[in-house]
Amino acid sequence: MRFEGTSGYVATEDLRIAVNAAVALQRPLLVKGEPGTGKTVLAQEIADALGSRLLEWHIKSTTRAQQGLYEYDAVSRLRDSQLGDDRVHDISNYIRKGKLWEAFASEDRPVLLIDEIDKADIEFPNDLLQELDRMEFHVYETGETVKARQRPVVIITSNNEKELPDAFLRRCFFHYISFPDTQTMRQIVDVHFPGLKETLLAEALKTFYNLRDLPGLKKKPSTSELLDWIKLLLNEDIDPATLRETDAKKLIPPLHGALLKNEQDVHLFERLAFLNRRDGR
User: Fold this and answer.
1) Which of 16, 119, 134, 239 is the most exposed place for a label (fewest CB within 10 A)?
2) Which ranges of the chain have pLDDT less than 50?
């Protein structure tokens, strides 16, 4: 079973190689890249391509590694004991299985997504080292050891908000999703908007990449934002010629709120666009 991309996801050759290498090595695939480059969607596409179930564990700043294994609900057990509920005699009634437990217990090999691992505390990755390495963990409350029936395909994403520990990195196969070049972006747009007029596509891509290339831009527009913008251009039936507007009063592209996300970037674009067009560049 190999990942070759899907009809709904354009995977570059180096990404396909990385996915298949991680599967062959039975190591987690650590995927980094700019927000909006398709890291999270990749896990769903891998699951679809392999015919596997996707389990998603979305990490927050308050997430603890233990939550991925299981949680013991001592409060509910105490309450039930006060009410005389017979359930209190079986502690397993108060064990809540986490995403790793679900993946380990799955009869078919699932794809497990650990999304945005860099949002959690710096010790979070280290706390999962043994479980991801040995594919087993101990449940202290019941005395049982949970072992994976078969090793899941583990996809871990990071936005590079903080550095990950070396010990954790050694256990992963790493891939950085570079921002798509113009040709790859054309393929991505074609997947979402087949039959898009070439004139509109060309002008939209030119405007988009010009925006991304602006020095000092605080938030560069991503692939997902480009797709949103093109959808709006189509919904509003925007003439491609409008994107080539040279009137100083209309320097900002139409519906730019899909691309520029703060006032500093809007003002920066206005100033640079005005200077460039005034100088005839």
Assistant:
1) 134
2) 247-249, 281
